[in-house]
Amino acid sequence: MTETEGERKSARVVVADDQTVVREGIVMLLGLLPGVEVVGAAGDGEEAVRLVAELAPDVVLMDLRMPRCDGVEATRRIRAQYPGTQVVVLTTYADDESLFPALRAGARGYLTKDAGGDEIVRAVHSVLSGDAGLSPSVQRRLLERLSQPEPEPVPAADETPDGLTARETEVLVLIAEGLSNQEIARRLHVSTATVKTHINNLFAKTGLKDRAQAVRYAYSKRLVRPPTG
User: Fold this and answer.
1) Over its length of 229 residues, how does the chain's per-residue pLDDT go in tens digits?
2) Which end of the chain has fewer beta carbons closer than 10 Å to its terminal beta carbon, N or C?
């Protein structure tokens, strides 16, 4: 016989979000639902870590972009110092640059703020049971990433020309392979804006003016091999 919602032990939860209206709204919503008990609320990552030390909650619902200490760093510190507390990210952002650092920091769940109360409660109890508490959109993103080919290796840092970083060299190689900014972003699991920043930086370091020059430069530096056949 499975445990019903009413019989299930309430999970003790801390809510961390820097926006007062959002934070209070989440606390109010969870207060109306069975299965969770909000024991504290934090306005930034520093306060979240302090409340975990003080209250020993089962789960922290963690926003990512907060002042003083962001959600990724707070998650890393909580999981390292207080392993009995799990973290479920609850954020507006579902892009790769938000998702994967949070998961690497130790978050076991990841939801966006359009999640309903029941979905939040399910994620909280999933992570306490040893499962992942991921929204369907996040699960799809993880599967997409696993199905994508890994980027070709780039030269070691001491072998890159003109002071390019490893990531700038990687972007340069992909330009030489004919990929668009959007395709490079998908391949590297970053935003298009980040790709543009890398391109601007590598153009500034190398004196290149356009993508055609970048292709010739990549071949001249033997970063890519000419096609054969």
Assistant:
1) 344 444 568 899 999 999 999 999 999 999 999 999 999 999 999 999 999 999 999 999 999 989 889 999 999 999 999 999 999 999 987 777 778 888 889 999 999 888 889 999 999 999 999 988 887 777 777 777 666 655 555 454 445 577 888 888 889 989 988 889 988 888 887 888 899 999 999 999 999 999 889 988 888 888 876 655 4
2) C
Place of tokens 């975990």: 52
Which two tokens mark 8? 């299930």
